[in-house]
UniProtKB/TrEMBL annotation:
Pathway: Pyrimidine metabolism; UMP biosynthesis via salvage pathway; UMP from uridine: step 1/1
Family: Belongs to the uridine kinase family.
Domain Phosphoribulokinase/uridine kinase: 26-237
Top EC class, one word: transferase
Natural source organism: Darwinula stevensoni
SUPFAM superfamilies registered for this protein in UniProt: P-loop containing nucleoside triphosphate hydrolases
Record's protein name: uridine/cytidine kinase
Protein keywords: Kinase, Nucleotide-binding, Transferase
Gene Ontology MF annotations: ATP binding; uridine kinase activity
Keyword flag Transmembrane helix: no
GO terms, biological process: CTP salvage; UMP salvage
Reactions accelerated catalytically: uridine + ATP = UMP + ADP + H(+); cytidine + ATP = CMP + ADP + H(+)
Gene3D superfamilies cross-referenced by the UniProt entry: P-loop containing nucleotide triphosphate hydrolases
Amino acid sequence: MDGSPTHVSYERSKSASNIFEKKPFLIGVAGGTASGKSTVCRRIMEKLGQDEMDDTQRQVVCITQDSFYKELNSEDGLKARKGKYNFDHPDAMDFDLLLDTLQAILHGKKCQVPVYDYSTNSRLLVYFRILKGSCAPLYSRKKDEFITIHPADVVLLEGILVFYCKEIRDLFHMKLFVDTDSDTRLMRRVLRDVKERGRDLEHVLNQYLLFVKPSFENFCLPTKKFADVIIPRGADNSGKL
Ligand SMILES: Nc1ncnc2c1ncn2[C@@H]1O[C@H](COP(=O)(O)OP(=O)(O)O)[C@@H](O)[C@H]1O
Ligand SMILES: O=c1ccn([C@@H]2O[C@H](COP(=O)(O)O)[C@@H](O)[C@H]2O)c(=O)[nH]1
């Protein structure tokens, strides 16, 4: 990370004074693809009675790292459509923008976060995806849309590589790793990508073998050691014996 300025924009939550700005408790939720990260976040929000609340009233908000994918040039866009672009490599992520955004959030600022659409591999408005994990998205075909993250007491950030960069990792007050076995994850990924992300079976399986699995082993799994809490089986784990 070079610390160069990025296009994240944020404003003060309380214009009169810094004293009353909310400094949220930041929780990172990592784990392999389809391990259940979004589901765990959604469950946390439900348990805390946050799921039905209006954006501005929420005390717990959830952000997905997928909002911070780099925009692709036309050559990489073409590769992506053929399943030949590695979305699981750290180089695919705009970590500078993510770092700036998290720092702004930690300073109690209201932030604008890009919204990502998997079916077009680009930033588009998919309102519910970012707030409620994978539940029914509302699409708007307008490019370069942003979603407003209002100051909150707790902010959850979920994603495959949220513990990869030390600078980002060190910002979390708590780190969770959702640990779900790889057969289960592949099965869920196939169903989800075909149903919700507009992919065909061959595309999903090729991408998985070529990029998703090796990158999980190289970049995601090694970050499990940084977790404060490991959650076996994700949302299936009620904590009861
Ligand atoms: N405990 C579970 N049991 C059954 N299906 C699950 C469970 N957790 C998640 N899923 C399903 O698996 C898919 C991926 O889950 P998701 O929470 O989006 O994973 P991630 O955010 O890690 O990619 C979704 O279709 C979701 O409904
Ligand atoms: O355009 C895209 C962007 C990402 N992906 C895949 O998404 C997963 C990460 O999302 P999870 O919800 O954690 O599964 C990652 O494995 C990428 O391969 C994509 O296919 N296309």
